[in-house]
Structure formats: structure tokens, C-alpha cells
TrEMBL record:
<feature type="modified residue" description="N6-(pyridoxal phosphate)lysine">
    <location>
        <position position="62"/>
    </location>
</feature>
<protein>
    <recommendedName>
        <fullName>Alanine racemase</fullName>
        <ecNumber>5.1.1.1</ecNumber>
    </recommendedName>
</protein>
<dbReference type="Pfam" id="PF01168">
    <property type="entry name" value="Ala_racemase_N"/>
</dbReference>
<dbReference type="GO" id="GO:0005829">
    <property type="term" value="C:cytosol"/>
</dbReference>
<dbReference type="InterPro" id="IPR000821">
    <property type="entry name" value="Ala_racemase"/>
</dbReference>
<comment type="similarity">
    <text>Belongs to the alanine racemase family.</text>
</comment>
<feature type="binding site">
    <location>
        <position position="335"/>
    </location>
    <ligand>
        <name>substrate</name>
    </ligand>
</feature>
<dbReference type="InterPro" id="IPR020622">
    <property type="entry name" value="Ala_racemase_pyridoxalP-BS"/>
</dbReference>
<feature type="binding site">
    <location>
        <position position="165"/>
    </location>
    <ligand>
        <name>substrate</name>
    </ligand>
</feature>
<dbReference type="GO" id="GO:0030170">
    <property type="term" value="F:pyridoxal phosphate binding"/>
</dbReference>
<comment type="pathway">
    <text>Amino-acid biosynthesis; D-alanine biosynthesis; D-alanine from L-alanine: step 1/1.</text>
</comment>
<dbReference type="InterPro" id="IPR029066">
    <property type="entry name" value="PLP-binding_barrel"/>
</dbReference>
<comment type="function">
    <text>Catalyzes the interconversion of L-alanine and D-alanine. May also act on other amino acids.</text>
</comment>
<dbReference type="InterPro" id="IPR011079">
    <property type="entry name" value="Ala_racemase_C"/>
</dbReference>
<keyword id="KW-0413">Isomerase</keyword>
<keyword id="KW-0663">Pyridoxal phosphate</keyword>
<feature type="active site" description="Proton acceptor; specific for L-alanine">
    <location>
        <position position="287"/>
    </location>
</feature>
Length: 396
């Protein structure tokens, strides 16, 4: 986050850029979610640089741009060079088509991972959405829809190479390999598969999926190939092929767990102190009194809770940064608040209205996720709708 000095604003007593609080809605909010669009664009370009020259880099923007707002994230990636986008659902695709049309990319390719649900074919065709066909049944319905509309509709074909979740199972690949003629009736954008274990480079499933996928490709008609998600990009050129499909790394989550994060942090989450109190030894804190003070203790109540995505698993295990110093979450996470121990701050104890960093320098979404026993993906997509959201940078 830019300092007040760097952005020309007046330093605010809470350490926050005062210009951010010029907006009354920001002043009223219990928490500010700042999204750095320049960092997101930098991340897109960083992934492009990691890829073998000639490999296209798509942007996965499902789940509302991994919780950060598809309306700002998708145009940011488009400005950075993305021309192909992936969403999970048809409604996400319809929304994205509107967003990209309004922002100057009406012809971007939008691929819908969940495929053409029965009865939705016309919606997909009308919005020029490319369904990912996950079964021969999907292929049959999509061909039929194309025929009825008098077009050869665009499609992606998903082959299951080990996830056992979506995509053609082995027996359907066998049938299609024996008679690939149904594929003549669609314009095949790519054949794809999805890695189950790319975040663990030593996992034997990576090589096994590579082998199974190559075996399937050798038996199917030639088409562009899409393989890697964020972590897959870092597995090396064997996984790059024609089109990579990164999501989470674009938003700053580390695609190489256990190693330094090659991405820039996109999210900063600042929340306000609602009340500070002194409690005596043995006094309980929060629901279930799951924390008991061992001595005189100063508790700050922060205005962000599980309704805002601060998972309940952070109870008695999470941390926030107060004045740049670590302060532990004590007691259970409530719907709208958490309680942190600020005894250590003595005379410099924070006061009502001060901001603390829930996600920030030295404590990113991955660190918070680990404290919650989860992953950065869940942390970001769980972020609630109550934050005052501030987008910085142009993402150009
Ligand atoms: C099929 C598919 N491709 C690509 C992605 C993007 O993966 P990641 O966010 O790990 O980069 C996902 C995300 O779940 C996916 O389901």
C-alpha cells in the first residue's frame, strides 16, 4: 500500500492514508479492502514471462474474480494483455461479457468451465460464450444447438486425466478416439485437462497426469492444448502447451508454496478498532469464554468477523498487525468482530478508530489462511460484501 507521503495525502493519526478516508462511505466502514490493480497486472505479466514463448496466458476470473470483483479485475487483465478468460458459471460468463464489452474488449474469448447445462445452449450462443464440454453428452447437446442455430459453435473439450471431477472419463475418450467425427461440428478452441497436485511439484500425480493427457491427445484430433493452472506454470515447459489458465496467482496467492512468493500482494485488509478495554485475570473473552486472561489484559475489539470472511478457525489462532506489530486473536471470531490482545502495547495502546492490518505487509492472505487451517483461495473467495472496497492503480 502506498504511504500517505508517497501519494501526496496527509498522514492520518491511525497510519492510514487520509485521502482514503475522504469518502464518507470509507469513514463509516468498519473495514477497508484495498485491491492493488497494478500488482494484479504485474502478476499477469509475471506469469506470461514464466511461460514458454508462444504460450498464451488466459485469466481465470471465476467466483467474482476470486472475491476481488470481476468488474475491476477482468479489465485489468485485459489491459495487461489477456484475451481469453475463464469463468465457472454461465451467469458469470454473461456478466463478464457485459463488463468486457463496456470496457472495450467485446471480442474476448470467455470459456465457461461448468459446461452447457441442459436448456442453456441458446444463452451461451447468444452471448458468444464458449462452453467447456465435460462429457460426450455435453458435446451432443452443443452440436445439436449449433445445428439448430445454423452455426459451428466454439467449444473447449475437457479430458479428465486424474481429477475425477469434470471432463471426459477414459471410456468416453475411447469412444471419441474411435469416432472423432462429432468434433467436426464444433470449432474446437482447445483440449484441456486440470492438474490435481500442481502446488506440490514432487507429487507423482503431476507426471501421471502428463502421461495420461498426452496419451489421450495422441488419439484425438489435433487442437490447441491447455494444461497449467497457476502452480502448473511453475512445473515447467512440459505443462505450458498453447494456453495456460492461471487464477489464484493473479490475485497474489503464492503458486509455489514453501518457496518465496513470486507474485505481488494484491489485497490489503484494514479493519477498525471499535473498543478497547482492560480486563482482569480469569475474565473470559468472547463466545464460550474460550480465552481466559492470565493476568491484567488489554483487549481491542476489531470490526471484522466471520461474516466478512474471517473464518471461525482463526479463533485463538489468528494474528493481526497493530502499529506494525503482531497481536494475537484471542477468543472466538464473532460474526462482526474479533478480539485481539494488545496488552504488550502499554502506554502506546491503540485507540478506538485506529486501523489494524488483517492482511498486509508481512502477513498476507496466505499467512492468514494458514492460521485458519485453509488456503489463500478460500480466504479470498470468502471475503464478504460489507467491506468498503478501494481499487488503486490503473492496471495498465
Ligand atoms: C479447470 C480450472 N482451470 C484453471 C483454474 C485456475 O486454477 P488456479 O486458481 O489454481 O490457478 C481452476 C481453478 O479452480 C480450474 O478449476
Amino acid at each position: 500500500m502506498k504511504s500517505a507521503e508517497a501519494s501526496g495525502g496527509t498522514p492520518h493519526p491511525t497510519g492510514l492514508d487520509a485521502t482514503l478516508l475522504a469518502d464518507p462511505a470509507a469513514r463509516r466502514a468498519c473495514a477497508l479492502l484495498q485491491v492493488d490493480l497494478d500488482a494484479a497486472a504485474w502478476n499477469y505479466r509475471r506469469l506470461c514471462d514464466q511461460l514458454t514463448p508462444g504460450t498464451e496466458c488466459a485469466a481465470v476470473v471465476k467466483a467474482n474474480g476470486y472475491g476481488l470483483g470481476i468488474e475491476r479485475m477482468a479489465p485489468t487483465f485485459a489491459r495487461a494483455g489477456a484475451r481469453t478468460f475463464f469463468v465457472a458459471t454461465i451467469d458469470e460468463g454473461l456478466h463478464l461479457r457485459r463488463v468486457l464489452t463496456e470496457t472495450g474488449w467485446p471480442d474476448a474469448a470467455i470459456h465457461v468451465l461448468s459446461g452447457p447445462l441442459p436448456g442453456t445452449e441458446r444463452d451461451l450462443l447468444d452471448a458468444r460464450l464458449t462452453p467447456v464440454l465435460n462429457s460426450l453428452g455435453d458435446l451432443d447437446r452443443w452440436r445439436a444447438a449449433g445445428k439448430a442455430a445454423g452455426v459451428r459453435p466454439a467449444a473447449a473439450l475437457h479430458v479428465d486425466s486424474g481429477m475425477s471431477r469434470l471432463g471426459l472419463p477414459d471410456d468416453e475418450v475411447d469412444r471419441l478416439a474411435a469416432d472423432p467425427s462429432p468434433l467436426d461440428e464444433v470449432a474446437l478452441a482447445h483440449i484441456m485437462t486440470h492438474l490435481s497436485s500442481a502446488d506440490d511439484p514432487g507429487h507423482p500425480e503431476n507426471a501421471a497426469q502428463l502421461e495420461r493427457f498426452d496419451a489421450a491427445l495422441a488419439r484425438l484430433p489435433a487442437a490447441p492444448v491447455s494444461f497449467a493452472n497457476s502452480s502448473g506454470i511453475f512445473l515447467g515447459p512440459d505443462y505450458h502447451r498453447n494456453l495456460a489458465r492461471p487464477g489464484v496467482a493473479l490475485y497474489g496467492v503464492n503458486p509455489t508454496p514453501g518457496h518465496p512468493n513470486p507474485m505481488q500482494r494484491v489485497v490489503t485488509l484494514k479493519a477498525r478498532i471499535l473498543q478497547v478495554r482492560q480486563i482482569d485475570a480469569q475474565r473470559g473473552v468472547g463466545y464460550g469464554a474460550s480465552f481466559r486472561a492470565q493476568g491484567p489484559t488489554r483487549i481491542a475489539t476489531i470490526g471484522v468477523g466471520y461474516a466478512d470472511g474471517l473464518l471461525r478457525h482463526l479463533s485463538n489462532s489468528g494474528h493481526v498487525a497493530v502499529q506494525g506489530r503482531c497481536a494475537p486473536v484471542v477468543g472466538r471470531v464473532s460474526m462482526d468482530s474479533i478480539t485481539v490482545d494488545v496488552t504488550e502495547f502499554g502506554a502506546n495502546a491503540p485507540v478506538v478508530g485506529d486501523f489494524v492490518d488483517v492482511i498486509g505487509d508481512g502477513h498476507d492472505q496466505d499467512a492468514l489462511a494458514e492460521e485458519a487451517g485453509t488456503i489463500g483461495y478460500e480466504m479470498l473467495t470468502a471475503l464478504g460484501s460489507r467491506y468498503h472496497r478501494v481499487y488503486t492503480g490503473g492496471g495498465g
